[in-house]
Amino acid sequence: MAGPYPTLVSRMIDSSSQELTKRRIEEAVEIIQDARHLVAFTGAGISVESGVSPFRGPGGLWNSYDPKYLELSYLTRHPDKCWRILKEIFYEHFAKARPNDAHQVLARLEHRGVLKAVITQNIDNLHQVAGTERVIEFHGNTRDLRCLSCGEITAADPQVLEVLPPTCSCGGLLKPDCIFFGEAIPQKAWLESRREMEAADGVLIIGSTGEVYPAASLPHQAAESGARIIEINPEESNFTQAISDVFIPLPAGAAMNRIEELLGR
Prior knowledge:
CATH superfamily of the largest domain: TPP-binding domain
Number of strands: 9
Largest sheet: 6 strands, parallel
Structural class: alpha/beta
Strand content: 15-25%
CATH topology of the largest domain: Rossmann fold
Number of helices: 9
Radius of gyration: 20 Å
Helix content: 25-40%
Mean pLDDT: 91
Number of domains: 2
């Protein structure tokens, strides 16, 4: 008979882990309260709780779709085939998503003046839907379409996507206004992100694994300038051992709710 000891040990470990997480959240709150310029840096993990699948990892979109559909060269060679997949991913799958608690808490922190900006790797528009105003879309967005011929921007309204591939008034091919493989980061987003990280004395990393560059270089830039780094991820990332001052091993919504509770509304 195994007796009560394995269960007792398990409870002790769980209790110890919970106490450690509680202390880390308290430390994170102290950093947030002390920060004069707090910036959030968000990745795919913040939107998982909204039903948006990440591109990489378990359950990622690349397990179901070939990454070639986000290659600019493939889009221009096979616009019909490519656009059928893009519509399915971006305008059917993403369209069902709604902001979760983490998006909502960040929006409230901005409205209180605690948070100065959100730099996001995501293209799902959920920060704006939640009410955040200062959002830097590092990889662009899917709510707009850009003409590959004249550069004109068109809203990705359902009627525009009725006939695939969608075309501009000039006759050129439209693409989602997000970064495809083979495209550079928009200069405006790059410069604004760097300025925010230069000014930051506190950074909230939420749901980013730190694998995708050049986006992943931004928190490193802030850390090198002396900013305190809070990381919220269910598991350790490339940031954790490298630059994170406080690592909170929780889903984004649960962690942000607890942080907001301690900050007080």
